[in-house]
Design brief:
Pathway: Purine metabolism; IMP biosynthesis via de novo pathway; N(2)-formyl-N(1)-(5-phospho-D-ribosyl)glycinamide from N(1)-(5-phospho-D-ribosyl)glycinamide (10-formyl THF route): step 1/1. There is one protein chain. The protein is an alpha/beta fold and 187 residues long. The protein is built from 6 helices and 7 strands, in the order βαβαβαβαβαββα. The protein has helices spanning 12-20, 40-47, 64-77, 94-99, 120-126, 162-186; strands spanning 2-7, 28-34, 52-54, 82-85, 104-108, 131-138, 148-155. The protein has a 7-stranded mixed sheet with strand order 3-2-1-4-5-6-7, sandwiched between helices. Helix 1 runs parallel beside helix 6. The protein binds 5-O-phosphono-beta-D-ribofuranosylamine (GRF).
Length: 187
């Protein structure tokens, strides 16, 4: 299976996924694409020998469809079987999602359905939750919704800040996402 990974920044989840796709793994990374040409994950992907592409979303202003049409070019050229959103911070239109319905995954840093959207760790702390975590789900037209492939839980510890909780969850993301992708790609 050919996997394209979409990132917006450091790409630590992309690296975890790319590093997991070796040996008898049923998938291989064929492209890392970003909405930010400065995303440091692009450099890391190139160092791993993975093809990269970047389409800056800012010139498109609010014209999501035009941005996505530009982003689709390198993605379709890579002929991916699976799309993995990994720290990708742009909302995708239903039209884009429909193209990859059933073969596009995302990782979200909360125990969905709790805390869709942003600032998930701050919200968990403010709610006084005893635990937090992350979710890998299939991407559908509804943001941070869709069938759940897997979740990982971490305790919220006394004195936690959004940053300390985020770091604890991120470590779990790097384990959960590769495990979910391997199962998903294996059929
Ligand atoms: C992190 O907040 C992570 O929880 C979420 O996206 C952000 C960046 O992840 N999935 P990455 O390091 O770019 O993979």
């Amino acid at each position: 299976k050919r996997v394209a990974i979409l990132i917006s920044g450091g790409g630590s989840n992309m690296l975890a996924l790319a590093r997991s796709m070796t040996g008898d793994h049923p998938a291989r990374p064929v492209l890392v694409a970003s909405n930010d040409p400065q995303a440091s994950g692009l450099e890391k992907a190139a160092e791993m020998g993975i093809a990269t592409a970047a389409v800056d979303h800012r010139p498109f202003r609010g014209d999501r469809a035009a941005f996505e049409a530009a982003l689709l070019e390198p993605i379709l050229r890579a002929e991916p079987d699976i799309l993995c959103l990994a720290g990708f911070m742009r909302v995708l239109t239903p039209a884009f999602v429909q193209r990859f319905e059933g073969r596009m995954l995302n990782i979200h840093p909360s125990l969905l359905p709790k805390y869709p959207g942003l600032h998930t760790h701050q919200r968990a702390l403010e709610a006084g939750d005893a635990e937090a975590g992350c979710t890998v789900h299939e991407v559908t037209a509804v943001l941070d919704d869709g069938p759940i492939l897997g979740q990982a839980r971490v305790p919220v510890l006394p004195g936690d800040t959004a940053d300390t909780l985020a770091a604890r969850v991120l470590a779990e993301e790097h384990r959960l996402y590769p495990a979910c992708l391997r199962r998903f790609a294996g059929g």
